[in-house]
Design brief:
Elements lengths: L12 H4 L29 H11 L21 H10 L7 E5 L2 H12 L5 E6 L3 H10 L6 E6 L4 H11 L4 E7 L11 H11 L7 E4 L17 E5 L13 E5 L1 H14 L5 H11 L2 H20 L4 E5 L11 H7 L6 E6 L3 H10 L4 E2 L9 E3 L11 H6 L6 E5 L5 H12 L3
Parallel strand pairs: 2-3, 2-4, 4-5, 5-6, 10-11
Antiparallel strand pairs: 1-7, 6-7, 8-9, 9-12, 11-12
Helix pairs in contact: 3-9, 4-8, 6-7, 10-14, 12-14
The structure holds pyridoxal-5'-phosphate (PLP).
């Protein structure tokens, strides 16, 4: 959490995105940080090198006021350090760690905080890559994943924990909203359950905030311990970089940073540089995307070829997720799913007719994207499970970019004629 050690941090986050964590006098007055494409760094003395390693390898805590020196770019690098200082601002996190992909952030965090015999309780459904990691990879290391419904309250999460033995639960892992249905998971309820489960050891609540963060949802404010991002999405925002971020208190993120050194999953300097460029426009991009999404969602809701639209901005009092949305989210985001009055051929005709929307997976970028979850992002999910999650052949997922909303609506109107 921010303290008086951070005198600059009273400014608005969007202001801090322009320069926080970097001073031009460090680099010949360059207004932007140069790219430090250096693999290794020269120590001023052997004693300084020794001290840097002691801290970097977690052999001792950093002394008050002690600068952590640069060693080698698998451990630390100026571009990565500037990024980590800046990216923690939106979520008001004490510490950040940057990775070469969202999956690197997720796998390094889970393999830091889980041990053989442990169970990770997780909301369902999860992003396909995370689902594969938990269901197929972690069991090779003696770690089991057990799912709970995305709408579970604390009591139901604890019931699941009782079934497998509370003492085995080492983490509660959450993805909210769920992809591709936009169903919400109650982070505060997960935090309540985790407190009950933290009798012998702390059971952290870890939230993948890729879909709404960092503008429209701040999990740390609702009791989460660690926030994860595929920075490939909104944080990067231009479909030109793959990256990941983990955020939280120092006692949870510092061990992740040490493990990152040995898995070698750290972000490279060019990745960090691109993200710093992207963070400057994060708020204006996300604000514009949210406005466009509202226009598009309203158009789709009233269209005869569309059976239903799932968009958080359409939640009304009395709808299942409405109260949770009011409590947990700061905006409806720019993701939506629509169920066409169509099967797979009709959905494909619609997708193939789109021109302004690009037919591609991923989300959160400046250009609008459309994809078919049943045959693309969720093709690995068993058919009966897809049915349960309403991932039908007529479902299309949209990510809204920064184009003029009228152009997006015209594109959709034309493509819907083909359904
Ligand atoms: C919600 C979510 N989490 C994590 C990831 C993985 O991120 P990356 O592709 O950057 O490894 C994705 C990718 O689509 C995602 O959508």
């Amino acid at each position: 959490m921010h303290t008086s050690l951070d005198p600059e941090l009273h400014l608005h986050p969007e202001t801090l995105m322009l320069g926080h964590g970097y001073r031009p006098e460090w680099s010949e007055g360059a207004i932007k940080p140069p790219l430090f494409q250096s693999s290794t760094f020269v120590f001023q003395s052997a004693a300084a090198g020794k001290a840097f390693f002691e801290v970097a390898y977690g052999h001792r805590a950093q002394a008050p006021g002690e600068a952590v020196g640069l060693i080698y770019s698998r451990l630390n690098n100026p571009n990565v350090e500037i990024l980590e200082e800046r990216v923690r601002v939106w979520d008001r996190a004490e510490r950040a760690a940057a990775f070469e992909s969202g999956m690197a952030a997720i796998s390094t965090t889970l393999l830091t905080h889980l041990r053989p015999g442990d169970v990770v309780l997780h909301s369902e459904p999860l992003y396909g890559g995370t689902d594969h990691l938990i269901r197929k990879v972690l069991p090779m290391f003696g770690i089991e994943g057990v799912g709970f419904d995305v709408d579970a309250d604390a009591a139901r999460i604890l019931q699941v924990a009782d079934r497998i033995g509370r003492h085995r639960v080492a983490m509660v892992y959450v993805e909210t909203p769920a992809n591709p249905t936009n169903a919400l998971c109650d982070i505060a309820a997960c935090a309540t359950a985790s407190r009950e489960l933290s009798t012998r050891r702390r059971v952290p609540v870890v939230v993948d905030n890729t879909y709404l963060g960092p503008l429209w949802q701040r999990p740390l404010d609702h009791g989460a311990d660690i926030v994860l991002y595929s920075a490939t999405k909104y944080l990067g925002g231009h479909s030109d970089v793959i990256a990941g971020i983990a955020l939280g208190a120092a006692d949870l993120i510092d061990p992740v940073r040490v493990m990152r050194t040995f898995y070698g999953s750290v972000a490279g300097p060019w990745t960090a540089w691109l993200l710093l460029r992207s963070l400057e426009t994060l708020k204006v991009r996300m604000d514009a995307q949210a406005v466009g999404a509202g226009v598009v969602a309203d158009f789709l809701r009233d269209h005869a070829k569309v059976a239903a639209v799932s968009y958080l901005g359409h939640l009304r009092p009395g709808d299942g997720d409405h109260d949770l949305y009011q409590r947990q989210c700061l905006g409806p985001g720019a993701m939506m799913s629509l169920w066409l009055h169509a099967d797979e051929p009709g959905a494909f005709r619609f997708l193939d007719a789109l021109r302004t929307f690009r037919l591609a997976v991923s989300l959160g970028s400046t250009e609008s994207l459309a994809q078919h979850p049943a045959t693309m992002t969720h093709c690995d999910v068993p058919a009966d499970e897809r049915r349960r999650l309403r991932v039908t052949d007529g479902l299309v997922r949209l990510s809204i970019g920064v184009e003029h909303p009228d152009d997006l609506v015209s594109d959709l109107a034309r493509a819907l004629d083909e359904v």
